[in-house]
Amino acid sequence: MPEILQFEFMRNALSAGLLVSFICGIIGALVVTNRIVFLSGGIAHAAYGGIGLAFYFGWPYMICTIGFSLAAGMVMAAVSMHSKHRADTVVGVIWAVGMACGIILTDLTPGYNVDLMSYLFGSILIVSAGDIWIMLVVAVVIMGLTAFFYQDLLAMSYDEEFARIRGVPVQALYFMLIGMLAVTIVMVIQVVGLIMVIALLTIPPFIVEKYAKSMFQMMLGSGLLGAVFTLSGLWFSYTFDLTSGACVIMVAGISFFIFLLIERLVVLIKSI
Predict the structure, then answer these.
(1) Residues 6+ away with beta carbon under 8 Å from 182
(2) For the purposes of burial, counting CB atoms within 10 Å of the CB of 229, is it exposed (0-12), middle (13-18) or buried (19 or more)?
């Protein structure tokens, strides 16, 4: 690993990977406990519409994609909050239309030179120092909001009706959560791509959930586990000259199945 650090792009990649891991640890724990994984997938794929807009009109990629993802996320949040029986359909439609819009706009971009694969599967090795500063600001904002509303988020995540009785503004809090999720997804797209973003958001908290005694422990454990996946994936990517985002997710995926296997074996041993 030390020899990797002599390259600036690898130092940037490691910094971005660690920041994204801890952002995903916080938001991923909330996504898993609130059971909004499918909605997360909808936002991730719809985000490609923002990427297409950015390239077609020459707007800043990060700002445009965050704005588009936030808009898509708010629509999905409104539907899932007020029409739960229609939520899956609407999320699926926005998911597909967002991606289609992005692909068409990149096709229509004058002097087309957009690398579609880098957004589908991640481009962590080309993350700039400026991108890292943006990620750092996002991480601080998300950690600040989560810390400030921690008790309310906890109540909403585990018992929405109890939260309402307590006077928690569940609707406003839910929209805030979806907003933080949308921004997080845009950050993660640069690391593992929009195809695999859900894995980094959900695998670490799923593994940690069984052993965590509180939401805070789940967030912290998920962040640390995500960092291990990211560092391991980057090492495999560098060593074997493979796509970095895919390596990160492959490490996470293999760990997920090993965890399920061990869990199953423990149950079988106890039943003997």
Answers:
(1) 43, 47, 66, 69, 70, 72, 73
(2) buried
Amino acid identity of 185? Answer: I
What are the two backbone dihedrals, phi and then psi, of residue 60, each rounded to the nearest 5 degrees?
Answer: -60, 130
- Per-residue pLDDT of 192-220, as tens digits, reads 888 788 889 999 999 999 899 999 999 99
Q: Global pTM?
A: 0.91
Q: Which domains does the chain have, with CATH numbers?
A: 2-271 (1.10.3470.10)
- Residue 109: what are its φ and ψ, rounded to 5°? -65, 125
| pLDDT band at residue 113 using 50, 70 and 90 as cut-offs | low
